[in-house]
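Open question from group meeting: does this chain pack into something compact, or does most of it stay loose? Before anyone orders reagents, we agreed to write out a predicted structure and look at it together. Recording both the input and the output here so the notebook holds the full record.
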Amino acid sequence: CVRRGQCGSTQFPDAAVMARVNDAIAAKEKQNHTGYKECLSDLHDAGEKPDDDTWSVTVKVGYLSQHYFSLEVTSSNYCGGAYPNNGVQTPITFDLATGREVDWNAVFKPGFIPEGLTKLYRASYPRDADPECRKLIVSEEPFESGDDAIFRLQSGKLMLLPMLAHATDRKSVV
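Structure tokens returned:
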């Protein structure tokens, strides 16, 4: 429930945790609205008009257990310029013991990101992937920090994706 008073029968055993999660989701929604307004302003400044492809965001529950609640957030936008941003993934995972967003950088032992994560990703990258993409994965550091990764819980597993250039064929690693 994001908007208070419109929650229906949302229940959670710890009201403080539920409030923290709802407040964090509301803050993300506010950031989204700010981004949308900035996008419209950029389009106006470029002499372009918004259309159906200007801004879209989809949110769905990706994972829910007693311990974690994960939202799959996928957005696309075109705010002027050479090309749009399509299918940008920004999942959010909450620790239901605290109600706080999971800080994936703090979850792993120091040094695992980037070294261990890069090694794991390269070892799991499909052998039959596009040769140019494979070359990029091997020659560059796909994870310089946890900020270069998309972490999401899905089907009880942690999925990892690097944030790479638009043209790169990135694959999930379980």
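Observations to bring back to the group:
Strands lie at 55-64, 68-77, 85-89, 92-95, 100-101, 149-154, 157-162.
Confidence is low (pLDDT under 50) at residues 1-5.
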